[in-house]
Amino acid sequence: MPLVRIDHSDARDNSTEIADAVHQAIVETYGIPDADRFQIITARGAGTIIAEDAGLGFDRTDPVIIQIFTQRGRSDAIKQRLYAAIASRLESAGVAGADVFIGYVENGPQDWSFGFGRAQYLTGELAVPAAGSAE
């Protein structure tokens, strides 16, 4: 169950379409249930997102910044497939590939609380996903 933050400029009027595209890419690539969705979508004013050239030689026009917080254990190859799937689905939502910026953050079962101030993976209320499986 990844937690996904999506930030984009308020010039984009398709937050739901962007969020749906990112979620579907995760569902298809990681095999998580469709209803296992945790997203925070923020449309930001002009000048509140700065994403300049990282030395790759291309310009961004209206970046969409995606942060994925998830449990460690997935291979680099499957992460690469996820990045490609997100970019492909976002292209269909009108987001140019150069404007897709993804940060991937891994953690462990002790780093999640789903409510009531308890770490449900540690208390046994939720099963800890196996490495490389859906979360």
Query: Biggest sheet, open or closed, and with what strands and sense?
Result: 4 strands, mixed
Structural class label: alpha/beta
Taken as a percent bin, the fraction of beta residues is 15-25%
What's the end-to-end separation, in Å?
4 Å
Report the strand count: 4
Number of helices: 3
Q: How does the overall form come out from the CA principal axes?
A: globular
Structural Rg:
16 Å
Could you please describe the fold and organization of this structure?
- The chain has 135 residues and is of the alpha/beta class.
- Helix content is 27%, strand content 22%.
- It has helices at 15-30, 76-92, 120-123; strands at 3-9, 38-44, 64-71, 100-107.
- The chain has a four-stranded mixed beta sheet, with helices on one face.
- Strand 1 (3-9), helix 1 (15-30) and strand 2 (38-44) form a beta-alpha-beta unit.
- Helix 1 packs antiparallel against helix 2 (76-92).
- The model has no long low-confidence stretch (mean pLDDT 93).
What are the key terms here?
four-stranded mixed beta sheet, single chain, 135 residues, globular, alpha/beta, 4 strands
